[in-house]
Write a structure and sequence with these properties.
Elements: E1 7-15, H1 25-39, E2 52-54, H2 56-59, E3 81-86, H3 92-112, E4 117-123, H4 132-138, E5 149-154, E6 159-163, H5 172-184, E7 196-203, E8 212-219, H6 224-246, E9 250-255, H7 260-272, E10 275-279, E11 285-286, E12 302-310, H8 313-325, E13 334-339, H9 342-349, E14 355-360, E15 365-367, H10 372-375, H11 393-402, E16 405-406, E17 422-423, H12 425-447, E18 454-458, H13 461-473, E19 479-483, H14 485-488, H15 497-505, H16 510-518, E20 525-532, H17 536-547, E21 554-560, E22 566-567, E23 570-571, E24 576-577
Parallel strand pairs: 1-2, 1-3, 3-4, 4-5, 9-10, 9-12, 12-13, 13-14, 18-19, 18-20, 20-21, 21-24
Antiparallel strand pairs: 5-6, 7-8, 8-15, 10-11, 16-17, 22-23
């Protein structure tokens, strides 16, 4: 059977990431379906190569003519050819005008260079009419060639035909495309992955200093997308129908000692055209900046309160009473990200202003006289200033002594020395990974490492568990390269025959393609590991990177058993340091 006449080349563009990855078969099937529906004929199997990545700093570089990241990926052959430029997986706000303009300009030039070319650009949502994206594309409306097709396709199935005959009218195409696209969409991180339980020594209330202590403090600063989605859905489902029946406007009020909730609720208010304000712990209302007090006569509409964390019924009811005392009309319900006392959940649901929470966590109190940390004289931790990257000894050993212990599983060659008795760090990272990840994020901030950092680590379950938590909190921004154990089993001196044989055997694996892609780019690279004892694994990772001409900025072991402050000149920033050594037996 002869190959179908129309070829398809698809180029998937991801903003904010830098390391190539293969395009999965399911997405290739979507491209083929799209080609067949748009052309009405059989098409060749799409050619996808690898994802085209665009770093945020590239979007705003003044040297726009030097941006060849997409130009290099355009097909150059002649004959009937469909090019699909897939940007649909990106949040629209990350695309930006510079990238939209470049995509329209570069693909438009490709489109008009041959009369048998077809072009489809997919976007998360349609850009506004004022976008230069449309100006560039609509300059091609009069292009020659009756068989040409140029259209823009949004994830909801909306289609803007610039040239040629678009898909079949009606809802059939849009519904099918929307469904296929939704099945391929990246899974959203659940709220639970973004709630951080920080260990420390926290006083319960400024009103009653020292009466009680708590072991944990919860924060939701990294959960803005999840909060926006969940709070917005609740508002639409519960409050908006009520407001329509009452014929009242809405004013959204955020109560948050942190910042995650403020940002999310402000975005929801802006999208709906609602008023927005902030509420302090006393129940006083301020403007969106949190600096100017608002009086009841300045609030146009019914107030809908949103809380980040609700600790105690008494505190919550006090805020509600204060709001009502200001002659402010309240909506029939309030919303909270988290309630930290399950026994209060039922009480709060039956409150004078019932509150619905998306999650609950236990944060039990201890009287000061019963608190072990008070007994040994540890000061209280300020939850708003606890931003350091190092770990307290009390926290580390409290975690270790509550975890499983056994023989160390992953040990570096050639001697195979191991800890005969060590905590199971995989289970530790599974339970406390979010908190440890925030420590690493604080370290990155201290070092001036940008969000697009590249993390290189061993391909081992414990550290991969921690890296997964880090990716959740950073919105998948850290690029992760995992080096297999069979490679780390050798000191990779490039001139050593055995080493070269190991690298040759691994040729073509994803981690090698990733390192090859980074060569010469100057991206910030950090090595991450669970332990440093002898330093053999770390030195091997450094050798592997050196083989590709990549110089890491730092080495970050979670637990450091070495007294050395560097690794052969590479700065070492450990989360916790303790003097110890592996057994030599």
């Amino acid at each position: 059977m002869s190959e179908p006449g129309i070829r398809i080349t698809a180029r998937k563009i991801a903003v904010g990431r830098e390391i190539p990855e293969s395009v999965p078969e399911e997405r290739v099937s979507l491209y083929r379906w799209l080609g067949q529906r748009l052309t009405g004929t059989e098409v060749a199997t799409p050619t996808t190569e690898r994802t085209v990545y665009v770093r945020p700093e590239e979007l705003y570089s003044p040297m726009s003519e030097s941006r060849d990241y997409l130009a290099r990926a355009l097909p150059a052959d002649e004959g009937p050819h469909l090019l699909i430029v897939d940007m649909g997986d990106n949040p629209y706000q990350l695309l930006g005008e510079p990238l939209l303009y470049d995509v329209a300009r570069l693909t438009g030039e490709w489109f008009k260079a041959h009369p048998q070319r077809l072009l489809v650009i997919t976007v998360p949502i349609m850009p506004p009419e004022s976008s230069t994206f449309w100006i560039e594309l609509r300059s091609l409306e009069s292009a020659d060639g009756p068989s040409r097709l140029l259209l823009v396709l949004a994830n909801d199935g909306r289609c803007e035909v610039i040239h040629g005959q678009g898909p079949d009218p009606g809802r059939v195409f849009a519904t099918e495309y929307k469904g296929l696209r939704a099945r391929l969409a990246p899974e959203r991180s659940p709220l639970s992955a973004k709630i951080v339980r920080r260990l420390g020594h926290y006083g319960v209330s400024r009103r009653r200093p020292g009466d009680f202590c708590r072991r944990y403090f919860f924060h939701v600063e990294n959960a803005v997308p999840e909060i926006s989605r969940l709070a917005g859905s609740w508002l639409e489902r519960v409050i908006v129908p009520w407001a329509a029946a009452e014929d009242t406007k809405l004013f959204l009020l955020s109560r948050d000692d942190q910042m995650g909730l403020h940002e999310a609720i402000a975005g929801i208010a802006a999208a709906r055209g609602c008023g927005f304000g902030r509420c302090d712990r006393e129940g006083r209302i301020f403007d969106a900046t949190g600096t100017r007090p608002l009086h009841a006569d300045e609030i146009d509409g019914t107030v809908v309160p949103f809380f980040s964390v609700v600790d105690r019924t008494r505190t919550y009811e006090g805020i509600v009473d204060t709001l009502r005392g200001q002659d402010i009309r309240l909506a029939p319900r309030a919303w909270a990200v988290l309630i930290t006392d399950s026994s209060s959940q039922l009480t709060l649901a039956k409150s004078s202003l019932p509150v619905y929470s998306e999650a609950s966590r236990e944060r039990s109190m201890k009287r000061r006289e019963d608190c072990e940390q008070c007994a040994i004289g540890l000061p209280h931790t300020d939850p708003l200033r606890d931003r350091g990257h190092t770990l307290r000894s009390y926290d580390v050993w409290d975690i270790f002594l509550r975890s499983r212990w056994g023989s160390e599983k992953n040990t570096p060659p050639p001697f195979g020395h191991r800890f005969h008795y060590a905590p199971d760090l995989e289970s530790v990272f599974a339970e406390h990974g979010n908190w440890l990840a925030t420590k690493i994020m604080s370290l990155f901030e201290m070092l001036g490492v940008p969000p697009g950092v590249v993390i290189v680590c061993p391909d081992e379950p414990p550290i991969k568990t921690l890296v997964a938590r880090l990716s959740d909190l950073m919105g998948d921004r850290p690029m992760v390269i995992t080096i297999p154990g069979e490679v780390l089993d050798h000191r990779t001196d490039p001139e050593h025959d055995e080493t070269q044989m190991v690298l040759d055997k691994a040729h073509g694996q994803l981690w090698q393609k990733q390192l090859s892609h980074l060569k010469g780019r100057g991206d910030p690279v950090v090595l991450l590991d669970e332990f440093r004892a002898s330093g053999t694994t770390a030195r091997t990772m450094v050798d592997v990177l050196d083989h590709w001409g990549i110089e890491p900025r730092a080495y970050v072991p979670v637990i450091d058993f070495s007294e050395e402050q560097d690794l052969d000149g590479l700065p070492v920033h450990s989360l916790y340091r303790i003097r110890a050594a592996r057994s030599t037996r």
